[in-house]
Amino acid sequence: MSSLVIQGISKSYATQQVIDRLDLQIDAGEFVSLLGPSGCGKTTLLRVIAGLTYGDRGSVILDGQDITTLAPHKRNVGVVFQNYALFPHLNVFENIAFGLKAKHLDADSIQIQVKQALLSVQMSHYSNRSIAELSGGQQQRVAVARALAIKPKLVLLDEPLSALDRKLRETMQIELKHILRDAGMTAIFVTHDQEEALVMSDRIAVMNKGHIEQLDVPNRVYTKPVSEFVLNFVGLSAQWQGRVASIEGASMAIQTAEGLLRCPFEEHFEAGAMVVVSVRPERIDLKPVSEQISVHALGQTHSSTDRSYNRLHATVQDVVYRGSNTICYFKTAQEHATPVMVELSANVSFVPKIGERVELSWAVQDTLAFLAQPAA
Ligand SMILES: Nc1ncnc2c1ncn2[C@@H]1O[C@H](COP(=O)(O)OP(=O)(O)OP(=O)(O)O)[C@@H](O)[C@H]1O
Ligand SMILES: [Mg+2]
């Protein structure tokens, strides 16, 4: 098992800065995903690590050895590309043996290492098959076996599952994770699919415009996004624009179109600051509006009784049944906003009807707030 340290890597193409002073440390045996939108520099970063291109500055250190300028074939890094890049004129065995022959291993060692690699991806019976006779999932496994056969210190996988249909993709996510874990492999996995990153990774590096915006375990990336970018890139959320009205110890009150919404106080906020308040759809509870409650001034009315919850009233716009859950879309006081979404698990007792008025509530602790980004 090997650790990887990337220090201050920058990379430009002509005038375009693609990677911007990027730092990343990966522990031995760890599975880290690079998650980010198209063009944010994920593939470029992998290519720098593999030695297929060089950074303009910074260093790449694998297992304590500086490999920044080392030729790709001397790095002992296995790469799985998006399209697998298998050689169509070679059979499965020859594809996997390719990198071993390049290392001038003797025939017996090649036999043994190819066999081991095929076994690890459960493809032992396919050794003599031609690539054209394999399904997408089988080709994907051969590509992984080829990367593992050289006994690399590190495996880099660039969107290796994107060509597969949804069901096979979900199966392969788990399978690939187990194959790499069983091999004790340190791995960097590129994806722009947030669910895939959440399912597979020990840690996720959320990338934006050539830098890492957040590097953390999946649970924290989802529940404690550090920026509006991460909030929006990973998962869904309801959001309101507002202004910090008051700071009251551990919480602060934000004036929004819905009235006051509360959220935990953090040091970088000050009274008057423009913020975005947010909550994840599965954190919101809903119940029918009781007739005694006024339809207006909701946040204020209820916050005086229980300040640990945010409450507001909303009208159901749509109810979408999705099997394992139901998503309700709401219209609230905020104009021109995208509808607020609430996720109901399959076993809830109350599912509202379209047009119904309901009360939404969620814990202040579950409320996220970010300083509003100035308009670009
Ligand atoms: N060889 C190259 N020459 C010039 N520009 C390049 C080259 N390779 C990449 N770029 C540019 O660098 C930026 C980052 O590209 P990169 O392939 O790293 O993105 P990515 O995050 O992998 O995106 P995707 O999710 O679409 O694969 C893009 O704007 C791309 O056009
Ligand atoms: Mg890419």
Strand and helix map with partners:
Layout: E1 4-13, E2 16-26, E3 31-35, H1 42-50, E4 57-62, E5 65-66, E6 77-80, H2 92-102, H3 107-120, H4 136-149, E7 154-158, H5 166-182, E8 186-191, H6 194-200, E9 203-208, E10 211-216, H7 218-223, H8 228-233, E11 238-248, E12 251-256, E13 259-264, E14 274-279, E15 285-288, H9 298-303, E16 309-321, E17 325-331, E18 340-345, E19 357-363, E20 368-371
Parallel strand pairs: 3-8, 3-9, 6-7, 7-8
Antiparallel strand pairs: 1-2, 1-4, 4-5, 9-10, 11-12, 11-14, 12-13, 14-20, 15-19, 16-17, 16-19, 17-18
Helix pairs in contact: 2-3, 2-4, 3-4
The structure holds adenosine-5'-triphosphate (ATP) and magnesium ion.
Magnesium ion binds next to helix 1.
Task: Write a structural description.
The protein is α+β, with helices and mostly antiparallel strands and 376 residues long. It is built from 9 helices and 20 strands. Strand 17 (325-331) and strand 18 form a beta hairpin. It folds into 2 domains: 4-230, Rossmann fold; 236-371, OB fold (Dihydrolipoamide Acetyltransferase, E2P) (Beta Barrel), CATH 2.40.50.100. The chain is elongated, with a radius of gyration of 25 Å. It binds adenosine-5'-triphosphate and magnesium ion. Magnesium ion binds at residues 42-43, 158.
